[in-house]
Amino acid sequence: MERTTMGAYIGQLYLITIIAIVPEAISDGHTNPGTCDMGASKCDLYLDVSLWLPMRRNYGEKVYINDTDGRLYVHGDESYNQIDPDDVVLADGSPRERTLTLFNKTMPGPTLIVYVNQEVKVHVRNQMLSDGVTVHFHGIEMRGTPWMDGAAFVTQCPILPGQTFTYKFTPKRKGTYFYHSHTGAQMSMGLVGAFIVKERKLDELEEHVMVLQDYNNAQSSDELFASTGLLGFISTEGEPFASELRTDGSYSASIKITSSLINGKGRLFDPQGNQLTNTPLTVFPVKQGQAYRFRVIGGAYSLQHKVSIDNHKLKLVAADGNDIDPIIADSFMIHSGERFDFIIDANQTVDNYWIRAETLQKYTNYTGFAILRYEGAESIDPTSSVQQCSMENMCTVVNCPFETYPNWTCITTDQIHSTTPAPTHNSGSFKEFFVSVGFAQAENNVFMGHMNGISLKLPSVSALTQPKEVTDICDESKCAAGKFCRCYRSLEVNFGDVVQINFFSAGKYNLASHPIHIHGYSFHVLKVGYRQENSSVVNAQFLNQYISCPNEFCYRNLGWANQSWKGGNIPGIDLDRAPRKDTVTLPAGGYVVVRFVADNPGLWYIHCHQEYHAQKGLGLLLNDSFSAIPAPPEGFPECRSFPPPDWLTSDKRESLPKDDENTTVARTDGRTFTEEEFWGMFGALLFVILLQFIISVWCLRKTKSSVSF
Ligand SMILES: [Cu+2]
């Protein structure tokens, strides 16, 4: 009898465990994601992540572009049935095949439209064969749900092949956002899509969404990484690492790109600018006399683009989802992770006009093209020409990563005006951080990304939800002024702190501008500083009129050159109008000052949004009011490494990538428990034993009593 009771008890436990691990069922309608109902309080959206190939209609039907008519046909189809360009992932039209990883087999993924204060559930199903994935909703602050931020090994474990995960959150603010993979280098695989949050009212204007991407038609970033080794950086052959000189004198220090895409379509050019593919492009239809809102998303993983429409002025009305005082411009610059909304008046002759996403590359042409087509115009390529900028006819360009450029009037990021004021430095406890950003020469001549000389090493657990298992925590006292370290590092802030971070593109290797993204926040950009004109970007000293550096590396112990700037007293900043963004371009050799109030408890990733740079460790974490972070939902997935107990201390460690000698390993002896945890577990064990004893005694007595009758 006692055995039966025990068996039932174990059975119950087993059942409870099974119920807990069965994933939420996927309903049949999961291939039709898209727009939520305006009136609904809740909304379910579905994303399937799977492998796919460009220039295919189905798995077996390879598509080609006919040179003479520019239309699509299936190879070997002698009846020449035209293929709808929207049925094919075209990319740059190159016949070269490479693997893509896509949301719902489209590139970009489906545009998701939700409403303010709607409870959104995005069900993600990983249908890949071999790789994990996570989805980050870029710009959504995830207030109260920090574990839904989608940053792999920061806020969650990757979703494994065959697994599902449901992102449940409530967007609080309207705006243009996007979703993308935040695992490894999967943005370069095509895992990007628009995420639009609208107010619950009808659109004032008809809208178009424009997702910009950069693309390599031969290899993904992972493959490019592999050909140099994950830690490699410099390739003497010029590929896969391509540090290309730009016309502003800085470099796009990143990996090889072949083309740019607008909504997944683009054309390939040779270095002389000759068009190599005649890909059908994205067409944005307009009617003469009407105005349209365009939502532009910087979904590139490496390149910065300059967006313009021939013969049309752009009225910029929002930056990173935040309203701004409208700016009339000829074009704007947008880096990976940024978004801009603009309005155009379709006030030109009925015709086709080029939409251009140009890059600043000096010797290569990666321009992305799309077509603005007026109703009544022929279905042909535009013949319009790009605006010529001259001394007499200066072009107005918004969000330049430099202050001046020949024949341009630059409106810099801090000259964009917000409609909400920034916090003053004395409106709470003020915390000021100095963060140098760039690349550093580590051991074996390998270059690593760093912030303050520390290359971020993400843990092998979800740091937010398994904080006690985070290893390789930096011992900053050992990362002395000129020393480079590779470890896990966070900035600590408390609820209510007014946080100011001064990012500097300082030090020896500051060749490139970096789009800095802060998760969990929309911050105010108080000031952007640029390198002096004609100064060499590799000269560490040119910034010294603004900051003081202890040595040429500028890793730690940084400060303002003028001490009176400390404590939030930078002269000339306009708190009432400082723009609000979640991603800001730190100019090569310049600085950016951002400020926000720490009112969103969580563990937030701060990193360069160029995927390759983040992979190289260019980031850190914001440990925001840790004790106030709410507990994750019950059953939230965990993950961890499972080395043999002697792994980390034995010579076997030699076969792991070698860490910098200054790295500290927080736990080398496996899982350790705090005193509280120990007594908690001891109590629970005691309770279970006592319960079993009572049940056994009760059963025994019952057996005896039944025998007596
Ligand atoms: Cu970067």
From TrEMBL:
Q: Which residues form the signal peptide?
A: none
Assigned keywords, A-Z: Copper, Membrane, Metal-binding, Oxidoreductase, Transmembrane, Transmembrane helix
Per the record, its GO cellular-component terms are: plasma membrane
Query: Which Pfam families does this chain map to?
Result: Cu-oxidase, Cu-oxidase_2, Cu-oxidase_3
The cross-references to InterPro entries, in alphabetical order and at most eight, read:
Cu-oxidase-like_N, Cu-oxidase_2nd, Cu-oxidase_C, Cu-oxidase_fam, Cu_oxidase_CS, Cu_oxidase_Cu_BS, Cupredoxin
Q: List the transmembrane segments.
A: 678-700
**GO terms for molecular function, please?**
copper ion binding; hydroquinone:oxygen oxidoreductase activity
Record GO biological process: iron ion transport
Domain Plastocyanin-like per the UniProt entry, residue ranges: 97-201, 257-377, 474-620
Cite the EC number: 1.10.3.2
Family assignment from sequence similarity? Belongs to the multicopper oxidase family.
| Protein's name according to its UniProt entry | Laccase
Which organism was this protein described from? Meretrix petechialis
